[in-house]
Design brief:
With about 170 residues, the protein is α+β, with helices and mostly antiparallel strands. The chain has two helices and nine strands; from the N terminus they run E-E-H-E-E-E-E-E-E-E-H.
């Protein structure tokens, strides 16, 4: 499997947008609402596997929480918003807050886009990370975000894509 392409940027207000993309030879989920939900489910499972259970996902009707050792909510997400059709399958979660968020806002989404040879995407948009440098402060004040949180998300994304390609959902 090729390495996913990735890009990220920050707005003047400090909001982060980051995307990982990978072209695949065939669809990995069905173009249905259940297929869209599978994109999200597999991601949360990979977070737990990658962190060896230190970060656990708690899925409930109101959304998803990523908790450190099952206790402190690191990030809270709303319920999955799904869209499914022949050309696009998407599972999106609004970011509601948590210890790693400076404020509620933005979303994380997982998508399969395109027909018989689609592209997989993992996108964070409009996220205000607590650990990143705040606007007007030196960039080194966000070193913890850049060295830990960004790298963790990238590593989980690579494992997530590899699992989808290997197993489907």
């Amino acid at each position: 499997m090729k390495a996913p392409a990735s890009q990220s940027r920050r707005s003047s207000a400090g909001a982060v947008t980051s995307e990982q993309r990978l072209a695949v030879a065939r669809p990995v989920v069905a173009p249905t609402p259940d297929g869209a939900r599978d994109l999200g489910r597999v991601y949360w499972e990979e977070v737990e596997r990658f962190t060896r259970g230190l970060v656990r996902s708690r899925v409930h009707p109101a959304g998803v929480e990523l908790r450190f050792l099952g206790r402190a909510p690191l990030l809270r997400f709303g319920p999955p918003e799904v869209r499914a059709g022949a050309e696009v399958v998407v599972c999106r979660y609004a970011i509601l807050g948590g210890a790693l968020a400076r404020a509620p806002g933005g979303a994380i989404s997982f998508a399969q886009q395109g027909g018989p040879c689609p592209e997989l995407r993992s996108t964070i948009s409009g996220f205000l990370p607590r650990l990143a440098a705040r606007p007007g402060l030196p960039s080194w004040t966000g070193a913890l975000y850049e060295q830990v949180q960004v790298r963790l998300h990238g590593a989980v994304g690579r494992r997530y894509f590899a699992r989808l390609v290997r197993e489907g959902a």
